[in-house]
Amino acid sequence: MKVTAAVVDELHGPFRIEELDLDEPGPGEALVKIVASGICHTDEITRHGDLPMPFPAVLGHEGAGEVVAVGEGVTGVRPGDHVVIGWPSCGDCRNCRDGEPRYCSRLGEALCGGGRLLGPRAGKTALRRPGGSPVHSHFFGQSSFSTYSLTWAEALVVVPPDAPLDLLGPLACGIATGAGAVFNTLKPGPGSSLVVYGAGAVGLAAVMAARLSPATTIIAVDRHPARLALATEFGATHTVDVSEADPVAEVHRICGGPADHALECTGVISVVRQAADSVGMLGTCVLIGGAPAGAEFGLDHLSTLWGKRVVGTLGGSGRSETLIGTLVELHRQGRFPFDRLVRFYDLADIDTALRDSRHGDVLKPVLRMSH
Questions:
Q1: For the chain, what is the domain count?
Q2: Does 168 share its domain with 214?
Q3: Full residue range of the structural domain in which residue 163 is found
């Protein structure tokens, strides 16, 4: 079938809107009519080589839409279902079987192998140009910068038919990553303190989630006053403007000592050290932000030795259906207002959306597809 998609032809190349041919669903697959797809920092860094996606390719990994067809053997979804496209996984490795498919042993292949992960057509792309030349597909199992996406059906999360489908794509990655880091990775206890470095979309989602936890001190750190003001509205009890104060010293002052938890949402290596230095003995620093490929950071050995934990998290951990379903319901209840982070763009305006995101003019750009 014919689809309209944003294609990147080469490393550092621009997005070009083209008409492509997309395969019909085979065994285990589902065809999703994309309503909207969020733009994530990961799309941008992949275009510049920090993830090894082969080119030419269609990116996009925060898609939501309606199932229009399913392949042989699919029983979990059916045409007409409204869905968010979750991350793919093999379902077979130890981590998948233990309920942590975000850490599938085949994760690299699943996210940026350039073709299907599973099924009789595993390894093959689903997209090609009208002349027949292949365009790599299945970025994060979906390649959702397109009017339609072919996905592995078991990765789909069915959402209520009255949920705002054009908003929900970012729950597949960026928004879920920030919230899941609190709910699944940290699980703050009563009276605990938590500091979020970076009040972008991921960091603000973490602040919203922290507000729903028993943590009583929630600190947001950023250099943009408008973002810190938003963090306060979303539940931060304190804010630190790094252009005016040393963040580590301020965290220690606010908490009367080190914080219990820190989340590093910027991917800036100097900020990683600040986040780690903000927590003390038995404290936990969670790494979330995407740093450039090959980036390294250093820690003070002695203070880390004293029971400090530094852990990474991907996609909010846990299972897509549990986390995404929870966030959809919390949003319906008015307790997780992530819609306030979103600005909509047409697919044809993807370059404008990316520029606005780079300049900090928008927190979470979302592309609406026209069919």
A1: 2
A2: no
A3: 2-173+317-368
Predicted pLDDT of residue 293: 76
How far apart, in Å, do the first and last CA atoms of the chain sit?
13
Handedness of CA 57, 78, 325, 159 (dihedral sign): positive
Contact criterion met (CB below 8 Å) for 350 and 39: yes
Look at residues 84, 46, 160 and name the one whose alpha carbon lies nearest to residue 316.
84
Contact between residue 201 and residue 341 where contact means Cβ atoms under 8 Å apart: yes
CATH classification at residue 227: 3.40.50.720
CATH of the domain at 352: 3.90.180.10
- Which amino acid, residue 296? E
Q: Quote the Cα angle for 258-263-269, to 5°.
A: 95
**List of long-range contacts for 251-257, beta carbons under 8 Å, 24+ apart:** 251/195, 251/219, 251/221, 251/278, 252/278, 254/193, 254/217, 254/219, 255/193, 255/217, 255/219
pTM: 0.94
For residue range 92-115, what is the model confidence (pLDDT) as tens digits? Answer: 999 999 999 999 999 999 999 999
Q: Measured between alpha carbons, how far is 237 from 207 in angstroms, rounded to an integer?
A: 10
Which of 16, 30, 315 is closest to 149 using CA atoms? 30
169 and 181 in a single domain? The answer is no
Closest of 42, 52, 40 to residue 114, by C-alpha: 52
